[in-house]
From TrEMBL:
Species the sequence originates in: Hyaloscypha hepaticicola
Highest taxon, organism lineage: Eukaryota
Record region (Disordered): 153-187
Keywords, comma-separated and alphabetical: Signal
Annotated signal peptide: 1-21
Keyword Signal: yes
Name used for this protein in its record: Glycosyltransferase family 31 protein
Amino acid sequence: MYSLLFIIGLVFFGRRELVHVLDCYLKRNLKENGGLLDEVIWSVNTNKVDDLAYLEDLLASNPSYRKHVATKTYEWYIGAWEAVDDPSAIYLKIDDDVVYFEDNAIPALVKRLLDNPQYFTVSANVVNNPALSWVHGHMGLYKGYYPEMTSPSQPPPNHSWRASELPSYEGPREGPEGFAKNGSTPPPFKGHRWLPVRLPEGETYDMSLAPVDTLTYDAFGPSLKNWAAAAQIQYSFLQHLEEGDTWRYKFDIWDYNYKRLSINFLAIRGSDILDVFPFPERDDEAYLVQTRPQQLRRRVIVDGTALAVHFAFGSQYNAFEGKKGIRWTDALDRYTAYADEVNQRSRWWNRKSRRLI
């Protein structure tokens, strides 16, 4: 079914430290490596010299990578969509700070879109996506975690991503002294870890004490700005990843009923973009998941089987002056370590047998 269909990754490029992680998963999903992606377009959304230099290195690393620079001036993120030029293709729009997605995510999204012409777009099941974060919370997926408030006497191991290697949190059940679960407390120090709450067997952690208790079913809810909730979400996912039970995040579909959805990772038909480009609204997200779908009476749904992780929104990344936020945790280092490990396992590809060796 897919052999006659052109499938294109469209990445809104801007930050090399995050793209380094995403690159691992994109290369695994190129057709040359047994995936579905014919090519990946890096739609440039930065003017930083170091980031642009990294992009050139990235382009040189694979012939299926190309970049697009908008030919006109557009408002906000609209220009990134100018790269869409094939009405018959399926585009996978992916934010540059997607730091994990399963190998089945792209096939699941493409199949769901092709099998359901009544859907305007299909989103992945994205970890750290405001309303979905509330859904995941009500599925019982979050673990008790609190920040390490002082630097450890012994430096933590390098290249570690496993929760089992973290020391236990030791402190009050409601969190460290002076720590606010609503994210109003600045991160204690750069590179700090979040530590798991390990309780005696038979005891259950009271999640109402945790940052994720602030989550609401709202695209602009507290989780959009609460760096502490984002940290707990990320460290919880990494623990599930180590324990091999990320299946717990999955479901069939979730219909957004024309409500706002953060478009971190989704599949959309090229024709549906080209029919209305340039968009008549400045806010591409609102237009693509609310305005246009309502005009066409075609739904926007989440495919719960297509699991992906979005690292952070700007308000979580830079919650305080000096870019203090979730980037002051070591969560990104942990995702980088995991991606590097995946890369090592995938380095040698036997194209003849089309299996990893």
